[in-house]
Amino acid sequence: MFAICSAGLAPAIALLSYFYLKDRVTEPIPLIIRTFISGALLVFPIMFIQYVLTSEAMINNNFIHSFFFGAFFEEFFKWFIFMFAIFRHPEFNNHYDGIVYAVSISLGFASLENVLYLITNGIEYAFLRAFFPVSSHALFGVIMGFYLGKAKHMHSRKKWNMFRAFLIPFLLHGIYNYILLTVTSNWIFYIIPFMIFLWYVALHRAKVANQAVSIKK
């Protein structure tokens, strides 16, 4: 069990540390821990909702399962936790902070989801899970946090940026799910280019947010 928990948590902690250390003005560790735990606690209500919907709706449609039973609820609840716990918090005081806190929430969710998956399916999946599901949650978090930071600190098109903070991760997450559900062979040739694209977009957003912090200082 210790090995599974370590393998499940390690990639999330590594990714969170990476984005945390890129922050020019580091955030308080207790608040990072609280947002991480909040993200992890989302796993249980989301799993319950998804179980009820998939068992009751009896809809055998990959598009609906990918975008609405999966991506919609996961990204909406992560967005909601951010809006409820962080958006008006005094420590959320520059653009890049949005990325740090959104990644923390996303990786809290991804870490517990990953541990539960490894308990059920075996530790041999840890390597692939680190590179794909866990990393993708972090990157969706970067994009969400970028637009929430923009909504809070750029003072232009606030509501539109708050909406984009949910919409863009939801669409990207849905595409990711749809690839995995519909491509039954050679899926790696589809998912790797998609992950490269996600990394490019996320790192570019992180760079822009950090530059905004420098200009503000």
TrEMBL record:
<feature type="transmembrane region" description="Helical">
    <location>
        <begin position="99"/>
        <end position="120"/>
    </location>
</feature>
<feature type="transmembrane region" description="Helical">
    <location>
        <begin position="126"/>
        <end position="149"/>
    </location>
</feature>
<feature type="transmembrane region" description="Helical">
    <location>
        <begin position="161"/>
        <end position="181"/>
    </location>
</feature>
<keyword id="KW-0378">Hydrolase</keyword>
<keyword id="KW-1003">Cell membrane</keyword>
<keyword id="KW-0472">Membrane</keyword>
<comment type="function">
    <text>Involved in the degradation of specific anti-sigma factors.</text>
</comment>
<keyword id="KW-0482">Metalloprotease</keyword>
<feature type="transmembrane region" description="Helical">
    <location>
        <begin position="31"/>
        <end position="51"/>
    </location>
</feature>
<protein>
    <recommendedName>
        <fullName>Protease PrsW</fullName>
        <ecNumber>3.4.-.-</ecNumber>
    </recommendedName>
</protein>
<dbReference type="GO" id="GO:0006508">
    <property type="term" value="P:proteolysis"/>
</dbReference>
<keyword id="KW-0812">Transmembrane</keyword>
<dbReference type="InterPro" id="IPR026898">
    <property type="entry name" value="PrsW"/>
</dbReference>
<dbReference type="InterPro" id="IPR023596">
    <property type="entry name" value="Peptidase_PrsW_arch/bac"/>
</dbReference>
<comment type="similarity">
    <text>Belongs to the protease PrsW family.</text>
</comment>
<feature type="transmembrane region" description="Helical">
    <location>
        <begin position="187"/>
        <end position="203"/>
    </location>
</feature>
<dbReference type="Pfam" id="PF13367">
    <property type="entry name" value="PrsW-protease"/>
</dbReference>
<keyword id="KW-0645">Protease</keyword>
<feature type="transmembrane region" description="Helical">
    <location>
        <begin position="63"/>
        <end position="87"/>
    </location>
</feature>
<dbReference type="GO" id="GO:0008237">
    <property type="term" value="F:metallopeptidase activity"/>
</dbReference>
<keyword id="KW-1133">Transmembrane helix</keyword>
<dbReference type="GO" id="GO:0005886">
    <property type="term" value="C:plasma membrane"/>
</dbReference>
